[in-house]
Known about the structure:
Elements: H1 2-13, H2 18-39, E1 60-65, E2 71-73, E3 76-78, H3 80-93, E4 98-103, H4 109-121, E5 126-130
Parallel strand pairs: 1-4, 4-5
Antiparallel strand pairs: 1-2, 2-3
Amino acid sequence: MKKTSRSQHSSLNELNITPLLDLVFVLLVIFIITTPQMMNNLEMTLPSGNPPKTNGKPKISHITVDEKGNIFLDDQFVTLADLREKLEALKTEQPDPNVVVKGADNMDYQHMVSVLDLLQQLNITKVGLATQD
Protein backbone atom coordinates (compact mmCIF):
# COMPACT_ATOMS: atom_id res chain seq x y z
CA MET A 1 0.00 0.00 0.00
CA LYS A 2 2.75 2.39 0.71
CA LYS A 3 4.01 2.04 -2.83
CA THR A 4 0.72 3.13 -4.37
CA SER A 5 0.45 6.16 -2.15
CA ARG A 6 3.97 7.22 -3.04
CA SER A 7 3.24 6.98 -6.77
CA GLN A 8 0.18 9.19 -6.30
CA HIS A 9 2.22 11.78 -4.41
CA SER A 10 4.95 11.76 -7.01
CA SER A 11 2.43 12.41 -9.77
CA LEU A 12 1.16 15.46 -7.88
CA ASN A 13 4.66 16.88 -7.77
CA GLU A 14 4.86 16.98 -11.59
CA LEU A 15 3.23 19.95 -13.25
CA ASN A 16 1.36 19.46 -16.49
CA ILE A 17 2.19 22.50 -18.67
CA THR A 18 0.20 21.51 -21.77
CA PRO A 19 -2.83 23.75 -20.97
CA LEU A 20 -0.45 26.60 -20.18
CA LEU A 21 1.27 26.21 -23.55
CA ASP A 22 -2.12 26.17 -25.30
CA LEU A 23 -3.02 29.45 -23.60
CA VAL A 24 0.30 31.02 -24.61
CA PHE A 25 -0.17 29.99 -28.24
CA VAL A 26 -3.72 31.38 -28.32
CA LEU A 27 -2.50 34.70 -26.93
CA LEU A 28 0.35 34.75 -29.45
CA VAL A 29 -2.08 34.22 -32.33
CA ILE A 30 -4.33 37.01 -31.04
CA PHE A 31 -1.38 39.44 -30.83
CA ILE A 32 -0.18 38.46 -34.31
CA ILE A 33 -3.61 39.13 -35.77
CA THR A 34 -4.29 42.44 -34.00
CA THR A 35 -0.83 44.05 -34.24
CA PRO A 36 -0.86 44.81 -38.01
CA GLN A 37 -4.24 46.51 -37.65
CA MET A 38 -2.85 48.85 -35.01
CA MET A 39 0.29 49.63 -37.03
CA ASN A 40 -1.28 50.41 -40.42
CA ASN A 41 -3.30 53.50 -39.62
CA LEU A 42 -4.14 55.66 -42.60
CA GLU A 43 -5.51 59.08 -41.87
CA MET A 44 -7.74 60.23 -44.67
CA THR A 45 -9.83 63.30 -45.24
CA LEU A 46 -13.02 62.16 -46.87
CA PRO A 47 -14.93 64.50 -49.15
CA SER A 48 -18.04 66.06 -47.74
CA GLY A 49 -21.36 66.29 -49.51
CA ASN A 50 -21.02 70.05 -49.89
CA PRO A 51 -19.13 71.52 -52.86
CA PRO A 52 -16.02 73.50 -51.94
CA LYS A 53 -16.40 77.24 -51.64
CA THR A 54 -14.27 78.94 -54.27
CA ASN A 55 -14.04 82.41 -55.66
CA GLY A 56 -14.34 81.53 -59.33
CA LYS A 57 -12.05 79.17 -61.19
CA PRO A 58 -8.68 78.45 -59.61
CA LYS A 59 -5.69 79.79 -61.54
CA ILE A 60 -3.67 77.00 -63.10
CA SER A 61 -0.12 77.63 -64.26
CA HIS A 62 1.02 75.58 -67.24
CA ILE A 63 4.66 74.58 -67.58
CA THR A 64 5.71 73.09 -70.93
CA VAL A 65 9.04 71.52 -71.80
CA ASP A 66 9.67 71.20 -75.55
CA GLU A 67 11.90 68.79 -77.51
CA LYS A 68 15.00 70.97 -77.08
CA GLY A 69 14.57 71.31 -73.31
CA ASN A 70 13.19 74.85 -73.43
CA ILE A 71 10.85 75.65 -70.56
CA PHE A 72 7.71 77.73 -71.01
CA LEU A 73 5.57 79.07 -68.16
CA ASP A 74 2.13 80.02 -69.48
CA ASP A 75 3.55 80.16 -73.04
CA GLN A 76 6.44 82.48 -72.05
CA PHE A 77 10.01 81.21 -72.39
CA VAL A 78 11.88 81.03 -69.06
CA THR A 79 15.11 79.49 -67.85
CA LEU A 80 15.13 77.17 -64.87
CA ALA A 81 16.37 79.98 -62.58
CA ASP A 82 13.65 82.33 -63.88
CA LEU A 83 11.08 79.59 -63.37
CA ARG A 84 12.12 79.33 -59.72
CA GLU A 85 11.67 83.08 -59.21
CA LYS A 86 8.30 83.17 -60.94
CA LEU A 87 7.01 80.18 -59.01
CA GLU A 88 8.18 81.71 -55.73
CA ALA A 89 6.29 84.89 -56.65
CA LEU A 90 3.25 82.82 -57.59
CA LYS A 91 3.46 81.01 -54.28
CA THR A 92 3.38 84.31 -52.37
CA GLU A 93 0.17 85.25 -54.24
CA GLN A 94 -1.43 81.82 -53.76
CA PRO A 95 -0.36 79.70 -50.80
CA ASP A 96 -1.03 76.44 -52.67
CA PRO A 97 -0.80 77.06 -56.43
CA ASN A 98 -2.03 74.62 -59.07
CA VAL A 99 0.53 73.64 -61.70
CA VAL A 100 0.23 71.42 -64.78
CA VAL A 101 3.45 70.17 -66.37
CA LYS A 102 3.59 68.88 -69.95
CA GLY A 103 6.62 67.47 -71.70
CA ALA A 104 7.18 66.85 -75.39
CA ASP A 105 7.07 63.27 -76.59
CA ASN A 106 10.67 63.00 -77.79
CA MET A 107 12.54 65.18 -75.29
CA ASP A 108 15.35 64.28 -72.93
CA TYR A 109 13.45 63.39 -69.77
CA GLN A 110 16.13 64.94 -67.55
CA HIS A 111 14.65 68.38 -68.35
CA MET A 112 11.28 67.21 -67.07
CA VAL A 113 12.88 65.78 -63.92
CA SER A 114 14.60 69.13 -63.30
CA VAL A 115 11.26 70.95 -63.46
CA LEU A 116 9.55 68.43 -61.17
CA ASP A 117 12.49 68.61 -58.75
CA LEU A 118 12.16 72.40 -58.67
CA LEU A 119 8.45 72.09 -57.87
CA GLN A 120 9.27 69.70 -55.04
CA GLN A 121 11.94 72.03 -53.64
CA LEU A 122 9.41 74.88 -53.59
CA ASN A 123 6.93 72.59 -51.82
CA ILE A 124 4.31 72.92 -54.55
CA THR A 125 2.14 69.86 -54.09
CA LYS A 126 -0.78 70.40 -56.46
CA VAL A 127 0.99 69.24 -59.60
CA GLY A 128 -0.61 67.54 -62.57
CA LEU A 129 1.12 65.88 -65.49
CA ALA A 130 -0.51 66.50 -68.88
CA THR A 131 -0.29 63.73 -71.41
CA GLN A 132 -2.14 65.31 -74.34
CA ASP A 133 -3.04 68.82 -75.49
